[in-house]
Amino acid sequence: MSANPHAALISTAATLLDGAFERDNSVCLAIAGTIATAIAHGLPRTQWLRGLQAADGQGLMETLFPGAAPDLAPISPSQVDDEELQAEFDDLLRLLLEAAAPADDVRRYLACAIASASLFDNHLWQDLQLPNRTVLSQLLNQHFPNLARRNTGNMRWKAFFYKQLCERAGQVCRAPSCGACDDYALCFGSEEGG
After folding, report:
1. Helical H runs in the chain?
2. Domain-embedded: residue 20
3. Residue 194 placed within a domain
4. How many domains does one find in the chain?
5. Distance of CA 41 to CAs 4, 65, 80, Å?
6. What is the pLDDT of residues 27-39, one digit of tens each?
7. Residue 26 lies in a domain
8. Which of 31, 47, 127, 165 has CB 3.0 to 4.6 Å from 117, enough for a Cys bridge?
């Protein structure tokens, strides 16, 4: 990690976006942002975008960032680094891919980016390096509409994803309803600037 991770983050995202097929495309922004966040966290190329197959890094670059340097292409891992974290990622990725409409390579790359960014600690829109939560909501509604429609209470996206995973596993939230939960403000409060 560089001496100034924020500068490295901006530089990496800008470099990728300079080579993007469309600089302001929200898919390009989210994927470049996820890679930049992973680099800022000091992660190796095999963890920039989890879930990639062998040829995906090259395909992603050719499709979304044709003018970017090849050394910014994420690569698939040869082995799983942390089985528990990988299982969490796999669950998130499956949740997203089941809701992809239609399922194609670009949505798969985006699902990998969103699931990877969900493993970081900030708000999801921040770890994707999107300008705000509204852009994230639009992105999810456009590419994963079946999932996005279920967030009827405007819950924070990362919290919503994990709530969906708990429900799938037959687990109950800590409170009988979100309104009665002590963490209500954490899930439903403002994300802007946080």
Report:
1. 5-18, 26-40, 56-64, 83-98, 105-117, 124-127, 133-143, 145-148, 157-168, 184-188
2. yes
3. no
4. 1
5. 11, 22, 18
6. 999 999 999 999 8
7. yes
8. 127
